[in-house]
Design brief:
Elements lengths: L2 E6 L5 E6 L8 E6 L11 H13 L3 E4 L9 E3 L10 E3 L9 H14 L4 E7 L1 H12 L5 E7 L4 H9 L1 H16 L8 H5 L6 H8 L10 H6 L10 H4 L5 E6 L8 H11 L6 E6 L10 H12 L2
Parallel strand pairs: 3-4, 3-7, 7-8, 8-9, 9-10
Antiparallel strand pairs: 1-2, 5-6
Helix pairs in contact: 1-11, 4-5, 5-7
């Protein structure tokens, strides 16, 4: 049975999570970064419990937690008396670069429990966060990265909206954020069922932003949207990395080609491994045991 835990981020937010520990004491622990769009580890019961069982069976503790981008709107407590209580967070307001504060907090908490070896498992936007974290903090304490279902949100927006509407919405989000309206909701985003503030929308759509970690659509179509080096965040990872996709992933514009591109862009191809799970979608629904086994086996290699 897991323990219900809370830990402090480096900016003093309290994040809730679960801690699954194997019967035999271990120094190894994996922590899990979920995706955005309303996600929560407490809603993904099958995935969370299945992955925990496979990791524990191989002598690895498992700590999934709700990061500051959990759910669409999420109130979080702070231990800082100068901060307002129950600040509003969630994927509708998140800035991806802030993942550093969550990840460093998770590692610091696990260290207080005696863990010494750390594995990062990131699903969907969590895979973006893993690469962004390493890019800004290359001398980190993560031993291995597992990135499942890395998606191209910037490319998906461009493909869905078309060049003009994409440019217009990006400009509006940038301008509203610049004049101090970043936390206000975008009515244009609501029209296509996206509950997002201007700051989060700009962070997600901006071709030169931190969120644009896996620009498959731009790369494959030679769109020249970004001035920054494509895949620079992912390429910064020099440590062992495992990429896992479902063959039917709806957010990467072709799983097989995505894997080939990421291998080409890998910061250390000799430490790059990949797996495509036939029949699985972006969330690996119905394939939870298979992906859990693949991850656990790779981590103990």
């Amino acid at each position: 049975m897991p323990k219900l835990i809370k830990f402090e981020t480096t900016d003093k937010l309290l994040l809730p999570g679960l801690l699954y520990e194997p019967d035999k004491k271990t120094k190894k622990a994996a922590f899990y970064l979920h995706g955005n769009g309303g996600s929560s580890i407490f809603d993904s019961v099958v995935r969370t419990n299945t992955l925990a069982k496979e990791l524990n069976n191989r002598g690895i503790a498992f700590m999934p937690f709700d990061n500051r981008g959990a759910k669409l709107v999420n109130g979080l407590d702070s231990t800082d008396p100068r901060q307002e209580t129950k600040q509003m967070f969630g994927s509708g307001f998140e800035i991806i670069k802030d993942c550093q504060k969550d990840i460093d907090g998770a590692i610091a908490y696990l260290k207080t429990l005696g863990y010494e070896t750390f594995y990062l498992i990131g699903q969907s936007t969590g895979a973006n966060k893993g690469a962004v974290y390493n890019f800004y903090k290359p001398k980190n304490e993560v031993d291995k990265f597992v990135l499942t279902g890395p998606g191209d949100d910037t490319g998906l927006y461009y493909k869905m909206l078309g060049p003009k509407q994409f440019s217009d919405l990006l400009s509006e989000a940038r301008n509203q954020t610049k004049v101090g309206n970043g936390a206000k909701l975008s009515s244009q985003a609501l029209k296509f069922d996206e509950y997002m503030s201007f700051q989060s929308l700009y962070d997600t759509m901006n071709p030169d932003g931190d969120y644009n970690t896996y620009p498959f659509y731009e790369y494959k179509n030679n769109l020249d949207l970004s001035s920054k080096k494509l895949f620079q965040e992912f390429s910064s990872i020099k440590k062992p990395v495992l990429i896992v996709y479902g063959s039917e992933d709806e957010y990467c514009d072709g799983a097989k080609e995505a894997v080939e591109i990421l291998k080409e862009k890998s910061g250390n191809p000799t430490l790059f491994e990949s797996k495509i799970i036939a029949g699985a979608d972006h969330g690996f629904h119905g394939f939870e045991k298979q992906i859990a086994q693949e991850i656990a086996k790779w981590l103990v290699k």
